[in-house]
Specification:
Number of domains: 2
Radius of gyration: 35 Å
CATH topology of the largest domain: Alpha-Beta Plaits
CATH class of the largest domain: Alpha Beta
Distance between the termini: 23 Å
Number of helices: 7
Strand order of the largest sheet: 2-3-1-4
Oligomer: single chain
Strand content: 5-15%
Order of helices and strands: HHEHEEHEHHH
Length: 244
């Protein structure tokens, strides 16, 4: 289980947000699958410029193109906006433009105030391919560990259930001897009620085995106004958490 959880944690660190909208999903799959790397200044290893991605609804495309350079003065490379020709199901499009690195956070915050979603995008196809390969390896490892864990749990449950049954039988026998005495003159059995019929069966057994003078005293604690159940039989539940 520890190995499985560790693998899941490693996978979660590499997993990217998914969805149908550019506003919520990671854009790496879209950009690396469709855009030319030469559109992104990071491929030229510049220390001064940064590539930005704007997520713009197609109904506001003209408005964005007319205003993106003026969101902050003198930080955007003029006429650098390029339509990446990608659109999600909600009609959002992706535009790449270039700004000075020192203004990235300030620009993102100012654009947000004007209801424009912008993100910096560092183009690194080699790292992306490496992460995808690593994710595939982790997925395969998780599948193996999940199957292995499932088999271990299956056999462990079988052994534990048999041990539990032995304990239940021993407890039932001991409780019956303590209650009804020796030599033992009682029947020990297992009842599997249909769903929702538990109370009907218990009521029938109370009616069958209760001493007539004490019949009104028997029943579940909630029914007889007591904190504990009181039955004319030894009744031990197998599946109730209170008795495991």
């Amino acid at each position: 289980m520890d190995d499985f959880q560790d693998t899941k944690s490693q996978y979660a660190q590499l997993a990217r947000p998914e969805g149908n909208s550019f506003l919520t999903k990671d854009l790496s799959d879209v950009i690396y699958g469709a855009a030319d790397k030469n559109l992104f200044v990071e491929t030229h290893e510049t220390d001064f410029l940064a590539s930005m991605i704007a997520i713009v609804h197609k109904s506001k495309e003209k408005e964005f193109l007319a205003s993106y350079e003026s969101i902050l003065e003198n930080v955007v490379v003029p006429k650098s906006a390029i339509d990446l020709k990608q659109e999600d199901k909600d009609g959002h499009k992706l535009f790449r433009f270039v700004i000075f690195q020192h203004s990235v956070e300030q620009y993102i915050n100012e654009a947000r105030r004007q209801s424009i979603v912008c993100k910096r995008f560092i183009y690194n196809k080699e790292q992306y391919d490496e992460d995808e390969k690593r994710k595939t390896q982790l997925e395969q490892r998780m599948d193996f560990q999940r199957n292995n864990l499932g088999q271990r749990c299956y056999y462990a449950f079988s052994e534990l259930f048999m041990a539990l049954m032995h304990l239940k039988v021993m407890r039932t026998y001991i409780d019956a001897v303590l209650r009804f005495g020796i030599p033992p003159k009682f029947f020990l059995g297992i009842i599997e009620p249909n769903k929702g019929k538990d109370k009907n069966i218990i009521d029938a057994m109370i009616k069958q085995f209760a001493e007539p003078s004490m019949a009104e005293m028997y029943g579940a604690g909630a029914d007889v106004g007591d904190q504990e159940d009181f039955f004319p039989i030894v009744l031990i539940h197998l599946t109730s958490p209170a008795f495991l």
